[in-house]
Amino acid sequence: MAKTTTAMNAMQDGPAKMEMGKHIALANADLSKGNMRGGCMHYMLAQKAGMMK
Q1: CB neighbours (10 Å) of residue 39?
Q2: Helix 15-33 and helix 2-10: axis angle, to 10°?
Q3: φ, ψ for residue 14 (rounded to 5)?
Q4: Is the pTM of this model over 0.85?
Q5: Distance CA 22, CA 17 (A)
Q6: CA angle 5-12-48, nearest 5°?
């Protein structure tokens, strides 16, 4: 997660960065509640959003 957050901070502002931040926040919320499945799903969506152009 730290590498993904670092990559997000290095990105230029845009819709991909905003979506990535949203999914990382949702992943953190799910993981803090103990929902590993939801956290993993949001983390994977954040990584996909980071690959968008």
Answers
A1: 19
A2: 160
A3: 170, 180
A4: no
A5: 9
A6: 55
Whose structure tokens read 């949001």? Answer: 42
Which DSSP string do the residues of 1-53 spell out, in sequence order? -HHHHHHHHHSPSSHHHHHHHHHHHHHHHHHHHT-HHHHHHHHHHHHHHHH--
pLDDT in the model for residue 23: 94
The residue with tokens 């905003």 is: 18
pLDDT tens digits for range 14-44 = 888 999 999 999 999 999 999 999 999 999 9
Which two tokens mark 44?
A: 């994977």
Can you read off the two tokens belonging to residue 15? Answer: 């819709």
Q: How far apart are CA 33 and CA 18, in angstroms?
A: 23
